[in-house]
Design brief:
Order of helices and strands: HEEHEEEEEEEE
Mean pLDDT: 80
Radius of gyration: 36 Å
Helix content: under 10%
Distance between the termini: 46 Å
Structural class: mainly beta
Largest sheet: 8 strands, antiparallel, barrel
Number of strands: 10
Low-confidence stretches: 296-302
Number of helices: 2
């Protein structure tokens, strides 16, 4: 049986096409996009802060005194240390820039500011005997409070990607915050018996001092950030901050002439200086959105 010319032509064409296809290189699929940390980002955070050193220490000395024994007792009673709590919630926002280099390293800078609900108040009492008045003592009641209204930082960041989408980093830089402290003292004269607020106590002196300002200090810490989408990441961060020591001064004006007989009257001033340090720890969680995340070019090889 003879093959027709048309069938022979079709068979030769199919064989030629197969030979040409076998000689062509395979076309590779484009590689998947590579995650990159480079670019600007904005975000929000929420956390909790607690104080590292909470004590407010007050030191008093007689300034003017025509009855040195009452002045000495008043100063001794006003020299006291109290430690109000300094814990609370904190939350705000951040903005920053990252640059990824040498495949796994990431360097950047970040600025943030948070509002704070951090305050603490405490009262303490101390008494001291009046040497020239047997059976009589001076009780000083001290009430102290301190507040953190807001906290911000400007920090550098340096990290390493343990996985393309997981960044471990250290951070440090400048910290600033609005802080205040208030210290008040009340002086009472007490006859023998219970030295703390007996029924026969007489008030004869009071002082009040306040400090309120924006303080600048430093911060250091570290964190872990996870890029769960091409331009979204979540982080968990710890910071230690130190805004430095603050001081406030007040005067106690006392007049013992109003005290019940047979107390010998006197008048004078006692200088009270109160100091504390505004430092603490901060743990917070945050969410970042990269505005111009970097996508490497995709090149197909043939």
């Amino acid at each position: 049986m003879k093959a027709s010319p048309l069938a022979v032509a079709l068979a030769l064409t199919a064989l030629a096409g197969s030979a040409i296809a076998a000689d062509l290189p395979a076309v590779k699929a484009p590689p998947p996009p590579v995650f990159s940390w480079s670019g600007f980002y904005i975000g929000a955070n929420v956390g909790y802060t607690w104080g590292a050193k909470n004590a407010i220490g007050s030191f008093a000395v007689p300034f003017f005194d025509n009855d040195p024994f009452f002045g000495a007792a008043s100063a001794a009673g006003a020299t006291v240390g109290v430690a109000p709590d300094f814990n609370g919630a904190i939350g705000g926002g951040q903005i920053g820039y990252n640059y990824q280099f040498r495949d796994r390293f990431v360097a950047g800078i970040e600025a943030d500011i948070q509002g704070a609900s951090v305050q603490g108040t405490i009262s303490g009492a101390r008494f001291a005997p009046v040497v020239n008045q047997p059976g009589f003592s001076v009780t000083t009641v001290t009430q102290a409070s301190r507040n953190l209204d807001y906290l911000g930082t400007i920090r550098g960041r340096l990290g390493y990607t343990v996985y393309p989408t997981v960044l471990v980093y250290a951070t440090g830089g400048l910290a600033y915050g609005g802080v205040s402290q208030t210290v008040s003292t009340s002086h009472f004269g007490n006859w023998a018996g219970d030295p703390f607020f007996p029924a026969s106590s007489d008030a004869f002196g009071f002082s009040w001092s306040r400090f309120s300002d924006t303080r600048v200090g430093w911060t250091v810490g570290g964190g872990l950030e996870w890029g769960f989408r091409s331009n979204w990441s979540a982080k968990l961060e710890y910071l230690y901050y130190d805004l430095g020591r603050v001081r406030s001064e007040g005067l106690v004006a006392f007049d013992t002439n109003s005290l019940s007989a047979p107390v010998i009257g006197g008048a004078g001033l006692v200088s009270v200086e109160s100091q504390t340090r505004f430092n603490g720890h901060l743990v917070r969680a945050g969410l970042n959105y990269r505005l111009d995340f970097y996508k490497p070019p995709i090149v197909a090889k043939y």
